[in-house]
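Fold description:
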Amino acid sequence: MKNPIQQTLPLGSPPWVTADPFLFCVHHDDQYPAGNEHQGPEASLDGRDLGQDFAGKDGWRMYHGEEVPGFPGHPHRGFETVTIVRNGLIDHSDSLGATARFGHGDVQWLTAGTGIVHAEMFPLVKRGEPNPTELFQIWLNLPAEDKHAPPHFSMLWNQDIPRLAFTDEAGRRTEVTVAAGELDGRRAPPPPPRSWASRPDTDVAIWTLRLEPGATWTLPPAKNPRAHRTLYFFAGGALRVADQLCREHQILAVSSDAALRLEAVEGTVEVLMLQGRPIGQPVVQYGPFVMNTRAEIQQAMMDYQRTRFGGWPFQKNDPVHPRDEGRFARHADGRVERPAR
């Protein structure tokens, strides 16, 4: 019987290594303090490299923000971002005039396509108490024929995302959150229409797994045996994958064509799974642009310099919404949606 574990790597600091069709995966986990009147941290920013604050001083980062943590307006072309917010909030603004505030279990799926500029700020809305913020951002590639698709974002609200609970023979629970793909007949809300994940044969799946101490669960085989499948063991003391015991947080490339037994050996264990049929095309990346050739990268840079991908319709490069604004999404066509709760 072949070993289902094809490769292991230390997890290390993000961004984490990914496999086609994925390009990038980062886990942001920041213990932000109380917010001030501007929804930035009620704390001194002395000693931080503002604009490039990734050091993690005091357990949190400003990233590229100078007043509010986050990522002020920046361009993308040729791929998609999938942002899974496990705790805290994100304020989105983009060059099409769309805006949103989402978090606390919501997922935003953004097709950059032919080009978009967006800001992702982390408003610290709570005053007098901490604002912990945790999220994954995952970049999913687009095939050549979709790299110039119109930009589009979809909101996958928390209440619409399947969360399945499994109990093993000892009564210990495993919870699986399905941000993309399908498990036990429960399917995630649809991704944008030109996403690689929207094709029926690509078997793209993005799941987070939470195993109680001692819990066992069997990961079912992928529907498409050609799919790449990667496990990111990012929380907990020890995890057994098939016959391999992992006492350090690791990245595991595993076979997708067979069931795989997981066991939380020590503590509550959490795992991110990324899966999908590879696109199998050349990848040329320059910062926020991902194309198939260097000439296309040069064209992307020229197009951005010339058009700014639609310009920036906001007064600030790092806009945030009012503190008391709830979760919402206002799309480029003016349509507004809010979660049911």
User: Anything to note?
Assistant: The first helix runs from residue 294 to 307. The first strand starts at residue 5 and ends at 10. Helices lie at 294-307.
